[in-house]
Amino acid sequence: MWVENAKELKNTFVRYYSRKCSVNVRKINPKVPTQEAYSIAQSIYDIIKKNGPLSISNTWIQAKDASISGLNSKTHMKIMLKWMRGRNMLKLLCNHVGNSKKFLHTTLPEDPQTDHQSETPSEIKLQTKKKKKKPSTKKRRN
Could you tell me which residues belong to the region Disordered (predicted)? Predict the structure, then answer.
């Protein structure tokens, strides 16, 4: 009986320690100067935002069609996508299709912005004085 428990413990131990640590995407080197990396990232971001969630191969096709300057190869684009994920510009989604997985890149949802420009000045009410708080009239129980 204890032999079976030892085998299970060994299997769990091997499974736990055989996993690789995840890559710290915040420390990815984009292989280009920072200013150029941001311009490439903005172009890729616009492509993904315009065309919705895209796989890596579809993103590469769209990037070639847009002829992004500074993007050297598909491998360089993958590095840039990881760099963008590390800077919270993109999110990676996983869709299960049958027995296979499909990974899609999408933009992060933007904060909802209220439309302040459409309001006229007469609609905007400014509060100039603070309302005074009335003291409570309840008596405390002892």
Answer: 104-142
The total of structural domains in the chain comes to: 1
Residue 127 counted as domain residue: no
| Calpha distance 21→129 (Å, rounded) | 57
What is this structure's pTM?
0.63
Measured CA to CA in angstroms, residue 55 lies from 9, 42, 44, 59, 98 at distances of 39, 18, 12, 6, 17
Residue 39 lies in domain? 31-107
Task: Check which CATH number belongs to the domain holding 98 and give it.
Answer: 1.10.10.10
Answer yes or no: is 85 within a domain. yes
pLDDT, tens digit, 9 for 90 and up, residues 66-83 = 999 999 999 999 999 999
pLDDT in tens, 121-131: 444 444 445 55
- Among 83, 85, 105, smallest CA distance to 94 is for 105
Q: What angle do helix axes 74-86 and 56-66 make, rounded to 10 degrees?
A: 110
